[in-house]
Amino acid sequence: MATETRGRMTAMPVISAKRMQDRIDAIVEAATAVFGAKGYEAASIAEIARAAEISDGLIYRYFSNKRDLLYRVLEAFYERVVAALEKEAANGATFEDRLHALIRRHLGNFVADRELCRLFLSEVRVASDYKGSAIQNLNRRYVSVLTALIEAGIGQGEVKADASPRLVRNVIFGAIEHIAWPYVNGDGKLDVDETAKAVTALIYGGIGIPAKT
Amino acid sequence: MATETRGRMTAMPVISAKRMQDRIDAIVEAATAVFGAKGYEAASIAEIARAAEISDGLIYRYFSNKRDLLYRVLEAFYERVVAALEKEAANGATFEDRLHALIRRHLGNFVADRELCRLFLSEVRVASDYKGSAIQNLNRRYVSVLTALIEAGIGQGEVKADASPRLVRNVIFGAIEHIAWPYVNGDGKLDVDETAKAVTALIYGGIGIPAKT
């Protein structure tokens, strides 16, 4: 990415790579706030420029359009949550604990970043340009944390040997999205603790091998 | 609805209620085929009129615009699948059999009516006019078939007493949508039989009380 950005910049006044990255970060941060507060449709490049305290023209040096900016906002968001999830998956003494921690964290993301989750689900994932995008790759990395956890659980005899990690992963992420969507879309509440416990119990009941006491 | 349609028609030449309904049905059928073949964006009222062998103007007597027509197409589709699901839920000797039949039918809908499912998931359910629509009501009726099945299972001692019918329902529908979406969106295959068996085994493993033999 650095090379590509530098390529675009050849005709521009020379600024340091550090200063360029700071600007990009400031724009993405401002765009995150504006999209988060107003939604994608209502947000404008002019408003994002004002929030970042730079000119509209400077935004167009780094981003082609509003959609490009949305993708970069969601990439930055996804990078944060993937890192957090990867860390979380290492915690917990038993498979059941680790599964619970992961489900709880995933649900918690919908509450902590409701508008970004809404943008991802309603604007990006159903769009034709999602396939092959950097966000899809980050999504793959995100869900692979759960696949790896289930595979390890099978390896350590804590999960039934015939459980399909891919299927279980789809069931969990699909279920949680479905449960979180009304909340993300502005309707109703989402009790993270209670829901995480109930989903974990259901899934663990279906695939887990309780430890002998 | 009949009254409303009649109200709209007061200034029009008098035709029988039966003939009016036949026309509406023909338009909805043509729109289903055109949306199904071309998607929502690319479809035009003119094309739907040609397919229904009537004039564009006649469509506008019954429908305000393309979006109105999309909602009516999906309503007709949903009415069909709700009726089929309600029938299906009565089959099967045990709770596990009935659960399997219902999951299989739900998955099968995504294969049988791929484009209509895609339109529902990508155009309608994430849209702001979904809430309170007739389609949302049909969706509620559809998912309530599964809630009722789980409640009956608890009542008959085939499902754990502490299972939450609402949660289990959300987990199942969320999971299946998540699994079906790549296929519905034109990517990959969907093995209905295999997936239905695996999802049923997972859910039944989590909530079921096996019969004593």
From TrEMBL, chains A, B:
UniProt signal peptide: none
Pfam families to which the protein is assigned, alphabetical: TetR_C_24, TetR_N
Record domain HTH tetR-type: where: 21-81
Gene3D superfamilies registered for this protein in UniProt: Homeodomain-like, Tetracycline Repressor, domain 2
PROSITE patterns: HTH_TETR_1, HTH_TETR_2
InterPro entries, alphabetized: DNA-bd_HTH_TetR-type_CS, Homeodomain-like_sf, HTH-type_TetR-like_transc_reg, HTH_TetR, KstR2_TetR_C, Tet_transcr_reg_TetR-rel_C_sf
GO molecular function: DNA-binding transcription factor activity; transcription cis-regulatory region binding
DNA-binding region listed in the record: 44-63
Residue ranges of the TM segments: none
Keyword DNA-binding: yes
Keyword set, alphabetical order: DNA-binding, Transcription, Transcription regulation
The protein, known as: TetR/AcrR family transcriptional regulator
Species: Zavarzinia compransoris
The organism's taxonomic lineage, starting at the top: Bacteria, Pseudomonadati, Pseudomonadota, Alphaproteobacteria, Rhodospirillales
